[in-house]
Amino acid sequence: MPNTTPFYLLNVFAESHFGGNPLAVFPAADGLNDETMQLIARQFNLSETVFVKRAARAEAVKQLRIFTPAYEMPFAGHPTVGAAYLLQKLLDLPPHYRLETPAGLVDIAHDGGAVTLALDNGIQTAASDLSREAAAALLGLAAEDVAAAPMWVNTGTWQLLLPLASFEAVARCRVADAAAFMRQTATDFGKPQIYVWALSGDTAKVRLFFGQDGAVLEDPGTGSAAANLGGWLWQQRGGSLALNITQGDELARPNRLLLRVDDNGVVSVGGKVIEVGRGVFMLP
């Protein structure tokens, strides 16, 4: 018999069967080393693949290791939400528990069909060398489409956030020069990427563009960036906030996220998860 390990395919932040951000979850990954996990993530070629291992910390139910096709991430939102959804089903977990990531512990809550993660890692920010005008040019926008200078933010992983003036500006973003994007959006804080967003009432329209293997791709739904948006808004404005986030419509993969920040700056991001497949992966 070949050596195999089970996997599940989920759509995270999904309101319909073919919506959301696709995710592969390997719930029994204790026997997999770092090299094998990276190779499996490249095989699936999804935004991220998550591997579940025994927790090193007593406060956590399990440990998550999250890999893109190119590298490991200390934290990412949609893999954490998706893994939590699956683990509750497989292990009959209570509504509230913790998962361990390289970025720290993540509080999980299950309520009314939604899965929510909460981060209390604090909020780090750093200025970007990218000007408003240069950011606009990278995205095919006019300077007046950019509402403020981009800023690096970290509530779990570093990402570059760029506020835009309108939903229409968010929808118009196009990256024509991949080489310029790679040069101008990468720093020691993170990989090449820009998370663009605009607010209208209690709704934020967002998109995330990132560099991978020399190409610029778009993520359908990004929980970690939503958390960073919440942290940035809390730091700028203070007080609690609640936002409905729309993402992925330009990719025909609508994602719907719920963002909450309490008065103390604890950030929560959640949404619905739909299982769409399962199987076994054959190992060499």
UniProtKB/TrEMBL annotation:
The keyword Isomerase applies. It is an enzyme of class 5 (isomerase). Coiled coil: none annotated. SUPFAM superfamilies: Diaminopimelate epimerase-like (SSF54506). The keyword Isomerase applies. The active site is at 48. GO terms for molecular function: trans-2,3-dihydro-3-hydroxy-anthranilate isomerase activity. Its EC number is 5.3.3.17. Keywords: Isomerase. InterPro entries: Phenazine_PhzF-like. GO terms for cellular component: cytoplasm. It comes from the Bacteria. Belongs to the PhzF family. PANTHER family: ANTISENSE-ENHANCING SEQUENCE 1 (PTHR13774:SF32), PHENAZINE BIOSYNTHESIS PROTEIN (PTHR13774). This is Trans-2,3-dihydro-3-hydroxyanthranilate isomerase. The lineage of its organism: Bacteria, Pseudomonadati, Pseudomonadota, Betaproteobacteria, Neisseriales. The gene is phzF.
